[in-house]
Task: structure prediction
Amino acid sequence: MALRIAERWFEMRRIDEDVTLLWEPHVHPLMRCNIWHVRGRDRDLLIDTGMGISSLRDATRHLIDKPVVAVATHVHADHVGGHHEFEDILVHRLEAPGLARPTGDFTLVDTSFDPMDLGTLRVSGYPVQGALLDAVPHADYDVGRYEVRPAPPTRIVDEGQIVETGDRHFEVLHLPGHSPGSIGLWEAGSGILFSGDAIYDGPLLDRLHHSCIEQYVHTLRRLQALAVRVVHAGHEPSFGRDRLIELTAAYLREHEDGVGPRPSRGMATMNQPGPAPRQTRSTE
Result:
């Protein structure tokens, strides 16, 4: 089946003076990542880069007029597909090999992955159907040749290190559970957390081949204790501290005493509006 050509690949919305959200509306909701641009005095941050189907560098030329650090909150395909376009690349030490040499063990997209059949995606516990895309960025794009390109990191970080832009300072939080080297960027002064997939407003993926529920429990207990004002997550709309407490408390009730039941969720469908919806709960 021929896919239509998208008028534009990325949508974007300015959150405040320094933060812009970008997303890929034509990517299946399960894989539609929130891409965060943070403007700094001396350098900018791009926190995650989407699927890499169309050029993020080109799409952000009007936003970025200085050096940029491409941050990988973890190395699943929906978060690092565009990292190869940037020269300065930051990732946790446990995820660094997967960024430099992408394989299904890290990216969830292995040699058998068929973009026109999401059933071949390496996701455990979540029913998926349909195709990765409902459009292509240009007429010559070959869906069948999709792959995550290597992006050797230039900055390998661990817990407690600081990522700075000249006028803003973010602490690296190691937040394992979803993946071994998942990180968040925490700005204590503003109460802003860029959380990646450690927490978002929907059922959490905790049964991938490299996920660990015991680590996830520890991570969510830790997040509960943060003086968060707003969470800018890897999927779904941003939310505040009250919602963070609700989300973490619900997960911990099910999992603190052992592996609990899988959270119920609907089947993901194409063409849901807004950035990166992953589940069926209505959000505003």
User: Anything to note?
Assistant: The two ends are 34 Å apart (CA to CA). The helical segments are 56-59, 77-80, 96-100, 104-107, 213-225, 241-255. The longest strand covers residues 169-174.
